[in-house]
Specification:
This protein has four helices and four strands; from the N terminus they run αββαβαβα. With about 130 residues, it is of the alpha+beta class. Strands 1-2 form a two-stranded antiparallel ribbon. A two-stranded parallel ribbon has the order 3-4. The chain is rod-shaped and about 80 Å long. The protein starts with 5 loop residues before the first helix and ends in an 8-residue tail after the last helix. The model has no long low-confidence stretch (mean pLDDT about 85).
Length: about 130
């Protein structure tokens, strides 16, 4: 449109019954735009809402093992873990200890390390 003094720019905005909005205050000279500010805010909110709806939410699936989980149960849960990872979800695997089973802490650690090693190609361990 051109370079105008502030008073002239305000006058132009008033004639069109719109707002004078400063776009880039650090530029030399500052950049302003004549627009309907309420409509601009409405459209910006609408765009932000659409972007938020398109953004995928991270799903965290959990798999719980006991310290003495049998091989068949382990394989069954591992297959579920593979399915979750292929679907794009994050996986949280943990071993629960009930009562005196805390004595078998090393077995639980071995179980989790084995799972992490077998699922290494599907995802990374955090």
């Amino acid at each position: 449109m051109g370079v105008y003094p502030i008073s002239k720019a305000r006058e132009i905005a008033n004639e069109q019954e719109l707002d004078l909005v400063e776009i880039s205050p650090n530029a030399e000279p500052p950049v302003c735009k004549v627009m309907d500010y309420k409509k601009f805010l409405y459209e910006q909110k609408k765009r932000d809402k659409a972007m938020k709806a398109k953004a995928s939410k991270v799903v965290v699936k959990e798999i719980r093992f006991g310290p003495q989980t049998d091989d068949h149960d382990y394989e069954f849960k591992k297959r579920h873990a593979e399915k979750f990872l292929k679907d794009g979800a994050k996986l949280k695997a943990y071993v629960f200890f009930k009562g005196r089973s805390i004595v078998y802490k090393d077995q639980g650690e071995i179980l989790l390390l084995r799972l992490a090693q077998e699922l290494e190609e599907l995802g990374k361990v955090e």
